[in-house]
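Hi C.,

You asked whether I'd gotten around to modeling the 492-residue construct. I have! Everything is below, sequence then structure, no commentary in between.
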Amino acid sequence: MIIALGVIFVARFLGSVDYGAFAVVMIPTNIAILFQGVGVDIALTRFIAKYRSEGRKEDLWVITEAGLAFCLAFSLLIAGLLWSSSGWVAEYFLHDSSLESLLQIASLAVVGNTLLTTVQSILVGYERMELRNVTAIMWAVVKSIFSPLLVWLGLGPYGAVLGYSVGILLIGTLCVVLLYVYVRSDYGGASLNRRRAFWMMFVFGLPLFMAMLVTGGLQQLCNFLMALYVDKNLIGNYNAAMNFGVLVTVFTTPIAMALYPLFSKMSRGDDGLRIVFQSSVKYTTLITLPVTAALILLADPVVDLIYGSGFQFTAFYLKLYLLAFLFAGVGNYSVNSFFSGIGETRVSLNMNVISFVVGAPMAFLLIPSYGIVGMLVVQLVAPRVGVFYGLWWIKKTLGFSIETRSSLMIYVSVLAAYIGGFALLSLFSFNNWVSLFVGGGLFAGLYLLLLPVTGALTAFDLREFDAMSGGLGPLAPFIRLFVNLMRRLVKS
């Protein structure tokens, strides 16, 4: 959320055209970032969590150092290649040779991003979530200060790129220091050497890397076609809409992050696997679905308040973009963590290959003709085909799937709350602030009321929430208040 605030300031200071130029420059950088770690960074989480659960503590730091050293070395190679080829990329890929210097600055972000995300993967494996959160907050604060400040000082897109690249390189370096100060342990008596540890992670992570490369490849193909066929003003509007995605991912990312090490401690034959998978889908849906629907409902006043009149297409793009988050109820945010955690990496690869095979032809067909709208349709349809394949595999191979009734009742509750809020905002002409609070308040009230009425929230769920509240620190009183209120409605 801190990052979202910083990006919003950058967008307002730059305007839609210069913000579009900044987004175009980041396309080659994001393609380069796709190759960081070639799956070793992902494998770090799985093997650290697995070895911790097996009591093999002496091997943990061998795995940690081997993975971190490889990821750093490989990122330096990728960044060097991007730096040296920036002139060619600017002229022949982006069709704007004036962007060469911006690309050279942006190449620094490859190394910084690798250090940051690799250390975060390690910390999740160790289940040091408090340290992982510290790294995320440090990056959020630095990014939200550096880039807006440099843009405000008059550096334009150069300030945005410089603030992002130097900031993430600084934070990535600090994260490595944090890792060595607070996590480092002795590895005397280890059964692994660094070479063997690296090879083990490389073999495991390669299918996951290929899966992510396919998924990221589809996104970057869309970005490439967008840079070719779409005006920078519309690209700026699109990226402004993407910034609101953080309001949903602020809930989904921590859940997915926690599920990966949890599933890594389990195997496909464990009795509790079905319960954990179904619960993860249900509880993610309980949170993600109403947030998404509320943002769709309030997109127009929110965008107008935050960006002003200079981003006239942003609200429309935002509504289309948010449709993808409505698939939380079918396991959209649990399936990938599930397969990666239990070691079925080939299924993850198959999911992403299917999404690419479906999405690539759609991209070539829709984006040149329909621009941003065509790209949003591709992003909505193609990944969901892969998710449905994953659900089919779980049902066919493991004999269970999502808990359909719970998901359906949550959808019913959200739909009814949306209809109520939409009717109110359609009947009365409120200003933006009143629309935000009155429409949002009615939506939230209806949703909370309907959860126990429809049976989407049960007494068992409330016991689970009550038990979890003890670990939520200052949020615990609010969770207990919610539980007590819901209990009264369930009994009534």
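If it helps when you're writing up: The longest helix spans residues 129-182.

Thanks,
B.
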